Amino acid sequence: MKRFVASIDPFILGGFVGSLFAGLITPYHIKLIASALDVRVITLGSLVGSLFPFLTGLAFEDRRLARRLYAQLPLLMTAEVALTAAAILLYALDLSLYYLASMLVFGTFTSAVMYLLQILKQRRYRRGRAAFDRRYAMADAAGYLAGSLLALLDLKPFSDLRVLLALGLAQTAVVYLIYLRCYGLARRAARAASAAPRAAQAAPRAAGAASSSASRLRTRAALLTSD
Q1: pLDDT band at 223, cuts 50/70/90?
Q2: Alpha carbon distance 66, 114 (integer Å)
Q3: Which of 183, 178, 181 lies closest to 70, judged by CA?
Q4: 207 within some domain
Q5: What three-state secondary structure class fits 50?
Q6: Mutual angle of helices 111-124 and 39-59, in 10-degree steps
Q7: pLDDT digits (tens, 9 = 90+) for 56-111
Q8: In which element (H, E) is residue 197 found?
Q9: DSSP readout, 100-128?
Q10: How many domains does the chain have?
Q11: Looking at the domain assignment, is residue 211 inside a domain?
Q12: Residue 156 falls within a domain, yes or no?
């Protein structure tokens, strides 16, 4: 069992868990939130949710900026979870404000994190990328299927909007914790790979220094013997 758990790729697991939440939440989200909003509010949210990912993608064409933000990926994920929780507080004031705020967070932070995770994919899965993409898509579909089947049960707690908002926050937090696990493994592997050439370069210098020291000792011993 431990071997099976250890063999699960955290990135693929994150895709499954995220889609599991999405499959469960989406029907109730449409029923409890989208159906209660004005069409203009939904349209404005859609504009925000599409404009900011586009602008973020343009900004990430600057590779230096993308690398800097990739190094701060855990901080960005933490900020998104905090802002998602803050957006939920707006629900007590006005549902439209909550919806627009959540779409703004999605359009900025969620899109930025997703773009940066592409860097992680590129570095972690250089070989067998096609197989990884297929397995990730399968896990994504399986998660959404499982969540949809769970939604079919129409359990009473899920009809409470507060429960629904809490599930949305839990989705972000849990999935990002899984992705951070993958991020940490990739960073450690990168550090180990960069340390290996330095160690290889240091070994000949150490050997040369040891040889030089041994040579000096032999010379000193020879001089003492000759005296």
Answers
A1: very low
A2: 12
A3: 183
A4: no
A5: helix
A6: 40
A7: 999 999 999 999 999 999 999 999 999 999 888 888 788 888 899 999 998 899 99
A8: helix 161-226
A9: HHHHHHIIIIIHHHHHHHHHHHHHH-SSS
A10: 1
A11: no
A12: yes
Asked if the model's pLDDT at residue 189 lies above 80, the reply is: no
Distances (CA, A) of 10 to 13, 16, 18, 186: 5, 10, 12, 11
Rg (CA), the chain: 27
Cα–Cα distances in Å, from 226 out to 107, 152, 215, 217?
84, 97, 17, 14
**Residue 85, domain extent:** 9-199
**Domain-embedded: residue 17:** yes
DSSP label of 155: -
Dihedral in degrees, nearest 10, Cα atoms 108, 110, 115, 117: 150
Q: Which residue has the tokens 């069992």?
A: 1
Q: What are phi and psi of 35, to 5 degrees?
A: -70, -20
Token pair listed for 209: 């220094």
Residue 182 belongs to a domain with what CATH number?
1.20.1250
pLDDT in tens, 153-187: 988 888 888 888 889 899 999 999 999 988 888 88
CA–CA distance, 132 with 187 (Å, rounded to integer): 19
pTM reported for the whole predicted model: 0.76
